[in-house]
Amino acid sequence: MIPVVRAEAFYTPPWRLADQWATVPPAERCLRWYELKQQRRIQAPEGMILGHRLWARINHGRWVADCPCGSAQVVSPADRRFACPECGAGWFPIVFPADVDAAEASIVGQLPHERNWWNPDDPNPWDRLQTPAEPGPKAGES
After folding, report:
1. How many CB atoms lie within 10 A of CB 75?
2. Residue 119, domain member (yes or no)
3. Using 50, 70 and 90 to split pLDDT, how confident is the model at 6?
4. How many domains does the chain have?
5. What gap in Å lies between CA 75 and CA 57, rounded to an integer?
6. If phi over 0 gives left and psi between -120 and 50 gives alpha, with beta otherwise, what is residue 30?
7. Distance between alpha carbon 74 and the CA centroid of its chain, in Å?
8. Three-class SS string for 75-94?
9. Which domain, by its residues, includes 60?
10. Model confidence, pTM
11. Is 125 a domain residue?
12. Which end of the chain is less packed: N or C, by CB atoms within 10 Å?
């Protein structure tokens, strides 16, 4: 069984920095990883953004959350917050399912590109397959 990838397994340091990253929370590992890849400093935001939350979903076997700016990052139920390294908006709280293990188990038998799960309470499931509405009668028909 291939486990669903979480931030702590995705954003890994080079071997020489492994000790320094040992105490970095999963949500902050994303920022450190971007610093290494982009070769630029990224300041961690201060405080949470109130009145807005992001919804965790499984996309191709990875837990991800989407920033309102359009970026998406790998996230973790072990650290339920998100800071976008692209726009720097701030820390967003992330909504994970009440039973993370059940969500992960529901996609185990799928092919990698089909290992997707969306929270049924997410009001903006941008890439969820939508059921087309039933066609209504044409104008002039009853």
Report:
1. 27
2. no
3. very high
4. 1
5. 9
6. alpha
7. 5
8. CECCECEEECCCCCCCEEEE
9. 7-13+25-114
10. 0.83
11. no
12. C
